[in-house]
DNA sequence: TATGAATGAGACTTCATTCAT
DNA sequence: AATGAATGAAGTCTCATTCAT
């Protein structure tokens, strides 16, 4: 019954992700979104009550996906686990940038957005805990150098994800190179 | 001389920089700006013809400052020069983020903004050339490992600047630690 | 016979009356209406072509009902007739308020609404004529005081209907008390 | 300094009152308002942050005015005081209707509107207290008939204000006639 | 017949920019 | 030179109504 949908919810969230990354949270408009979908602007409101809910749902989906993959990582060897995680994060390089915008979402208008945001924060914490755990174990294993404070090593590792893949290598290769650079250093 | 000075051009650009970094290009409004200055919103138009010119002038000033420092670096020892440059860039960590927003400036309204943007692009190219030059020389000196493609090493180096200084170390110390991590790697 | 009956026309008009009284004509939406019925919003259009027709039909039904009762009143004793009419009007206290909204209905879209509205106006006039007739006869009978202009007595009588029944008395009792107050006055 | 205003705050509130009475709260639009003022719609936002604040400010001004006059009434003779109050209320016949709309104002968006609404409720209570006080004293003085419950007398009195002045008498005369009708009754 | 989906018109609100004092 | 006031363009959102299943 009813008409056929002009765009699916998945298409909507995919496009939202693309546009938020391209234009930033404040540069993201529903007009822009509707121009990149097949339907009219007002149709979007059939699915989400307001702009905030759209962006929150989009971010939730991204981080939920990362969380799922990260939870499946075998943590028995810390360094190996870190490399695997790096691959996951590089695959979803947008994560960081999106999370940076998450704090801009005004949740006073929408309980749905507030709920999504809470999920996002919980997931974020879970991911950070996992990394902390692995880093600490790696340090106890003496796998990491001791002359650099752990927060610096972690910070640089974290920041690695954002490195633009200008050579357009497959993410698996790209991630492995980044890990090699991070672990082994640049000097010969 | 007429009315009392409300705010200087420097104050205006400083506040613009702060607010653009805080809110992103699209989240930056003249209303916001005037709220953080002592005068009225319309007074801003005594200095700049429109929003685009303000942001362009702000970015130009930032990159001109970096360019000046970077030009003064002694390039005789490539690795040493890179470390010095890293310090400069870390000092002006906002540079990257601001440059990312530069492309959003719509120059069709303002020749002044267009001129500033051109300057910015030239300066950006100059800085990139300097880095390429140094990296190439470092590689020829066999100071850098050969098993990782040069673009990867450069990319990671570049990305280093954005690492948030969560320990709030003095920038000189922070920059040195970043360099050590980058050059020597994380493993013990 | 096809799908299950969702809501009857009577339910639709009853709910319309309730909601128009609660929210006023401009605060009455089809969305609101459908939320208080069992079916979908679009199903309403199986019964009426547009919002105006619904409200017009609702008002017509109300005034037709009052008209029917008022026509049956025995007018031989003017004062007695007025008391009986008061009971009828108090029973349908909403009438006044609804008639006040009738003028807001835009009939340019719908001939059906225009026809209903015409009926409403005719009925309204009929009711007013009945009251005028009774009042005039009552005055000729010297049943009413002469020092107050007749329009004032009529106006106060008319306005009586809207008095909120805050003690929640049965309408018959409530109406009788109102009539006593009107006819006998407040002083001891 | 600055341009000359196109309309004053008083003009704005006067017109708001007129239009809210004419169209009801839900039928009142800023577009409508601006069409009845000299300026553009957006200019209104220089003075009030949103629609709710405008209506709240309008109602506050009306009730504050009534409160001021009602407070000045000499209450030594209850019936005389009631007659004087009736005149005041008839003069501001809109009060009741406006107060009915007051509950529709959504204050979640605006603290200013919430504050005004609180004032309105306090003032409303003060006025109701004054009437209750006078009615009770009038009853103790045996000035009012005992066979009708006091709430009915009060209710009818209250409702008197809304009687449309169809003969267009000066309000003083009109009020006196209403009072005479109420106190003495309709019968000869 | 009933309805989910689509949509344009219209209302609210913000903001860059201009104007006039 | 500084600014309060004015304004139109643009974005958010709601709703009556239509469409197609």
UniProtKB/TrEMBL annotation, chains A, B, C, D:
Stored PROSITE patterns: HTH_TETR_2
InterPro entries the record matches: Homeodomain-like_sf, HTH-type_Tx_Regulator, HTH_TetR
Entry-linked Pfam families: TetR_N
DNA-binding interval(s): 29-48
Signal peptide segment: none
GO molecular function annotations of the record: DNA binding
Record key words, sorted: DNA-binding
Residue ranges constituting the HTH tetR-type domain according to the UniProt record: 6-66
Name by which UniProt lists this protein: TetR/AcrR family transcriptional regulator
């Amino acid at each position: 019954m009813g008409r056929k949908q002009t765009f699916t919810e998945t298409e909507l969230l995919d496009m939202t992700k693309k546009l938020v990354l391209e234009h930033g949270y404040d540069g993201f408009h529903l007009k822009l979104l509707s121009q990149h979908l097949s339907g009219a602007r007002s149709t979007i409101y059939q699915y989400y009550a307001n702009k905030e809910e759209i962006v929150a749902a989009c971010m939730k989906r991204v981080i939920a996906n990362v969380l799922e993959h990260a939870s499946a990582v075998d943590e028995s060897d810390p360094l190996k686990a870190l490399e695997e995680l790096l691959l996951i994060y590089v695959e979803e390089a947008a994560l960081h940038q999106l999370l940076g915008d998450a704090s801009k979402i005004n949740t006073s208008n929408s309980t749905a957005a507030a709920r999504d945001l809470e999920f996002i924060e919980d997931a974020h914490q879970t991911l950070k805990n996992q990394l902390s755990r692995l880093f600490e174990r790696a340090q106890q294993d003496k796998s990491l150098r001791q002359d650099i404070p752990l927060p610096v090593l972690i910070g640089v590792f974290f920041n690695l994800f954002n490195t633009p893949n200008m050579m357009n290598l497959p993410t698996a290769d790209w991630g492995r190179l980044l890990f090699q650079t991070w672990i082994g250093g640049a000097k010969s």
